[in-house]
């Protein structure tokens, strides 16, 4: 399974991705969790310690590695460098590990945005392509907020695209735009997960806007998630209701893959 998680900034996609990674690990799946968001908070959402997180170095900042593989120094524009650098060993050598989870933090190319035609931009795109097309593990991509990454086509080969939404018009507008662009890229399975749902009325609001086939379920609004963040603890380790909600969503997701 290759699953990309996206949504408007602040909707809780990283909390969902981290909890999903832990639950998949519990089931015995080997998970490559990819933090493709420049804010890089997936490590704490999974449950890595602050010391472990401080030691994480984004792939885009590994100048010596990128120069070795591409033939050009990060930050350089133009010139000649390899368009298909070797990346197959990156998950094994540079991931942070917990149980069956391997965490990779991508970072961002410093010039021209994440999709720039520069050594680090090409290297990141090649790495993502390898994970999506050739990896035999479950790959979870915690994408940057909004829809800009879709125009770069980095998610065109994922098996499922999950959009996290809140009960609110602005969140739904972003979800609609993400869904449209994902469809244009040929992604067959575009699914919706609600978050911060505090009442049956809010749940009904979300269900009204999506079909039963695409709406996987909803995560409850739970102060325990906020308290966990204040303490630097993953929601999975804090006993949040979000864990049980995510487990139900995962069961539905696995059923869909088995049918497909």
Notes on the structure:
The protein is built from 10 helices and 8 strands. The chain is α/β, with parallel strands linked by helices and 260 residues long. The protein has a domain at 4-48 and 96-106 and 136-259: P-loop containing nucleotide triphosphate hydrolases (Rossmann fold). The protein has an 8-stranded mixed sheet with strand order 3-4-2-5-1-6-7-8, with helices on both faces. Strand 3 and strand 4 form a beta hairpin. Helix 1 packs across helix 10. The longest helix has 19 residues, at 241-259. The radius of gyration is 18 Å and the shape is globular.
Outline, from the CA principal axes? globular
CATH superfamily of one domain: P-loop containing nucleotide triphosphate hydrolases
What's the helical proportion of residues? 40-55%
Helix/strand order: EHEHHHHEEHEEHEHEHH
Tally of extended strands? 8
Low-pLDDT ranges: none
Radius of gyration using CA atoms only: 18 Å
**What's the end-to-end separation, in Å?**
12 Å
* CATH structural architecture of one domain: 3-Layer(aba) Sandwich
Number of helices: 10
Q: CATH class of one domain, please?
A: Alpha Beta
How are the strands of the biggest sheet laid out side by side?
3-4-2-5-1-6-7-8
Coarse structural class: alpha/beta
> What's the story with the biggest beta sheet?
8 strands, mixed
> What's the pLDDT, averaged over the residues?
85
CATH third-level topology of one domain:
Rossmann fold
Strand content: 15-25%
């Amino acid at each position: 399974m290759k699953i990309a998680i996206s949504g408007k900034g602040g909707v809780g996609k990283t909390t969902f991705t981290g909890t999903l990674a832990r639950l998949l690990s519990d089931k015995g799946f080997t998970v490559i969790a990819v933090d493709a968001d420049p804010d890089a908070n997936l490590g704490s959402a999974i449950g890595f310690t602050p010391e472990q997180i401080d030691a994480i170095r984004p792939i885009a900042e590994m100048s010596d590695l990128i120069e070795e593989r591409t033939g050009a120094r990060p930050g350089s524009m133009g010139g000649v460098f390899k368009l298909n650098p070797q990346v197959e060993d990156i998950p094994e050598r540079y991931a942070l590990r917990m149980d069956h989870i391997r965490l990779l933090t991508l970072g961002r190319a410093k010039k021209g945005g994440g999709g720039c035609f520069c050594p680090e931009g090409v290297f990141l795109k090649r790495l993502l392509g390898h994970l999506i097309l050739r990896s035999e593990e479950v790959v979870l991509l915690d994408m940057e907020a909004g829809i800009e990454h879709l125009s770069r086509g980095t998610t065109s080969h994922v098996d499922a695209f999950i959009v996290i939404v809140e009960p609110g018009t602005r969140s739904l507008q972003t979800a609609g735009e993400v869904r449209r662009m994902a469809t244009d890229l040929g992604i067959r399975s575009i699914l919706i997960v609600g978050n911060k749902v505090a009442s049956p009325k809010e749940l009904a609001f979300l269900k009204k806007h999506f079909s039963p086939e695409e709406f996987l379920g909803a995560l409850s609004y739970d102060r325990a998630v906020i308290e966990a963040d204040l303490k630097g603890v993953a929601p999975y380790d804090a006993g949040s209701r979000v864990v049980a909600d995510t487990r139900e969503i995962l069961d539905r997701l696995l059923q869909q893959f088995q049918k497909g």
